[in-house]
Amino acid sequence: MSLRSSRTAPLENRERLALLAMWAAVALFELTKAVHIDDTAYLEIARAILANPWHPMSGLVNWGDTAAAIHAVNQPHLLFYLMAAVMKVAPAHLELALHVVWWLFSGLAIALFHGLARELDLPVKLIGVGESVEDLRPFDADDFARALISDA
Q1: Where are the domains of the chain?
Q2: Using CA atoms in the order 16, 17, 23, 28, what is the torsion angle rounded to 10 degrees?
C-alpha cells in the first residue's frame, strides 16, 4: 500500500470479496425470512396510501385493541410510501419484491458501515457468532470470507 491513508485507498479484492460474501449471506436470510408480526399493519398502511394518495395518513389501522389514525402510529412513514410503490409495481410478486427491497437496504447498510469504519480507521476486532457476549470471537477477514464461500 502507498503512503495514502486506508480511508482514501481503493478497496482491495479481498475486502470486496468479504463485503460481497456478507451481502450474499444476508440475502439468503432476507429473501427467505418469514413474515414479521408488524408486516400486516405495514401492508395495510401501504394499501391505505394507495387507496387515498392525497390524504394517505388519514386512514385507520388496528395497531392494538382499537383502530387509530395512521398518522398517530409511531412508525417511519416514508417506509410505507416505499412499500406502496412496490405494491403498485409488483402486485403479483409482492412478498418477493419487498424482500428484495429490504435486501438492497441491507447491502446499503453493510457498505455504509464499512465506509464509516474506513473513514474512522477502525479495525474489526470481534465478530458475533451467537446472541450473547460470550459468543464474540476474534475476527479475521480471510477466515470469514473463506467460511462464507466454503461448502462445509
Answers
A1: 13-149
A2: 170
For residue 122, give the 3-state DSSP assignment. Answer: coil
Distance between CA atoms of 47 and 42, rounded to whole angstroms?
9
What is the grid cell recorded at 54?
392525497
What cell numbers appear for 78 in the block?
A: 416514508
Q: Cα–chain-centroid distance for residue 48?
A: 24
> What pLDDT, in 10s, does the model give residues 8-45?
566 678 888 888 888 888 888 777 777 677 777 788 88
The answer to whether 139 and 125 are in contact (CB under 8 A) is yes
Q: What's the first-to-final CA gap in the chain, in angstroms? A: 33
**How far apart, in whole angstroms, are the C-alpha atoms of residue 101 and residue 49?**
18
Per-residue pLDDT tens over the stretch 105-133:
888 998 898 888 888 887 778 888 888 88
The total of other beta-carbon atoms located within 10 Å of residue 49's CB is 22
Residue at grid coordinates 401492508: 43
